[in-house]
Amino acid sequence: MPSHRNALVAVVRQELAEARGTARAVLAAAESARGEAQRRKRLIREAYSTCLAQLAEAREAARQDILRRTQSEAATLTRNVESIAALSAPGAAGTSWRYWTPTEPERVGRPGLLRIGTVAYEAGEERTKLPALVPFLDHAHVNVTGDQQDADGVISGLLLRALGTTRPGDVRLSVYDPERLGGTLAGFAPLTTSKLLTFVSPGGLSATLDELVEHICRVNETVLAGEYSSLAELTAATPGPRPEPWRVLVLLLDKAELKEREQLERIARTGVACGVHLVVRGLELPPHPTVERIVAADGRATCDITGEMTVRLDDPPPPEKIAAFCRTTAERLREGPPPARFTDLEPETLWSQSSAAGLLAPIGDSTDGSLVPVPLGDDPPHALIGGPSGSGKTNLIYAWIASLAARYGPDELALYLLDFKEGVSFARFTPGPRDPSWLPQVRLAGINVNGDREFGLALLRHLGEELRTRAQAAKRAEASKLAELRAEDPTGHWPRIVAIIDEFQVLLGGRDAVADEAVALLEDLARRGRSQGIHLVLASQDISGIEALWGRSGLVEQFTLRIALPKARRILAETNLAAAVIPRFHAVVNADSGVAGANRIVRLPDAGDRAAWRTLQRKLWLQRPIECEPPRLFDGDAVPRLPDAYRPAGPVPAHDPAQVGSSPGAVLGERIDVAARPARLRLGRMPGRNLAVLGTRTDEACDILAAAALSLAAQGPARFSVACLDPGAEHAAARLVAELPHADWYGHSELAELFAATVPDGIPHYVLGYALDAAGAAYREGLKALLTDGPEQRTHVLGWWRSVGRLRDSLGGIGARLDTIGAWVALDVHGAELSPLSPQPGGPVWYPRRRRALFFDRSVHRNPEVIIPYEVNSDHT
Question: Are 159 and 322 in contact (CB under 8 A)?
Answer without folding.
Answer: no
